[in-house]
Amino acid sequence: MRKPLIVSFFISLLLFFSCNDGDILTVEFDFEDTFSQCGDLVFYKTKSDPSESLSIVVNDINFEDLFELTAGETLELTSNSNTFNYRTYSNVSLPSDLFCSDVPSSEVNITQDFDSSNNPSIFTTTLTEDDNDGIPAELEDLNGNGDLEDDDTDGDGIPNYLDQDDDGDNVFTVTENPDYTEADGLANAQDTDGDNIPDYLDTDDDDDGVLTRDEESVDQDQNPTNDIRDPNIGPDYLNKDVFLTVPAVAYRLHTIQQTYTISLVITELDLEILSQDVFEFGELQDSSLSASRTLTPAF
Fold it and tell me: What are the DSSP calls for 20-79, one per residue?
């Protein structure tokens, strides 16, 4: 199960500038490292105590362009036409959708507004795919060579870390109880026949001589879990006393989960009160960054 690494921390920049009258102006950015998106490429983050916001409106790229990549690739797009704003407010707190309305709320009172235009802003997108089978991707590197693409137990053309059914028995891995825990790893994975091969990698789970995927004498639907001759024991593929065989003719449809991670770095930032060569705006949090694709392996 591959998950992108998301580290939660605070961006804290304490910068001092001399004003014309000799006083010291202190500017502190204290925002979380995630941001939101609204409308046509408006990216923003807000905070309370005190109420402040950072936002950037991008004019020269399309949001859809950030998703034009395949798994394992990294895409970089640079915007050169944009406006960055740092604002302060008299409000005790700010609405979560502050930048999502064409008509600003009359209850929001801006006290200061500083802007910087056409700052080269770099969007970096990565796409992570996973089968969500309950096993961390790094533990599906069976040969231990660091390459997840060449571990394909059932030879169906889908590497194990993307394969919902690692052993090709038409019983999804998550159903075969790999029982992964951080403390014990896969030490407690279900092994019905006690042959030291966990069920999720075993093509004959009950060791009755009939392949699990061929134990479909009740409902021939590429799903052995619903073929049950003895309800007291369970599915036939886990019952060593049932030998009925109906040869499988196809694999089940697989669903591969996709997660996009989009980060933004703003360079050459030049506000009236702040100059910054590189400013890490953070990582986009948006439900649209999760998707999926499906495929059925050739049998």
Answer: TTSPEEEEEEEEESEEEEETTTEEEEEETTTTEEEEEEE-SS-GGGGG---TT-EEEEEE
Burial, 86: exposed, middle or buried (Cβ in 10 Å; 0-12, 13-18, 19+)? Answer: buried
Across the chain, mean pLDDT equals 89
Phi, psi (deg, nearest 5) at residue 26: -105, 125
Distance CA 245, CA 46 (A): 62
Greatest extent of the chain over all pairs of C-alpha atoms, in Å: 92
Exposure of 21 in the CB half-sphere (CA atoms within 13 A): 2
Domain ranges of the chain: 10-128+258-290
- Is residue 70 classed exposed, middle or buried when 0-12, 13-18 and 19+ CB atoms within 10 A define those classes? exposed
pLDDT digits (tens, 9 = 90+) for 9-61: 333 333 333 333 433 344 567 899 999 999 878 999 999 989 999 999 999 99
- Per residue in 240-275, pLDDT (tens digit) is 999 999 999 999 999 999 999 999 999 999 999 888
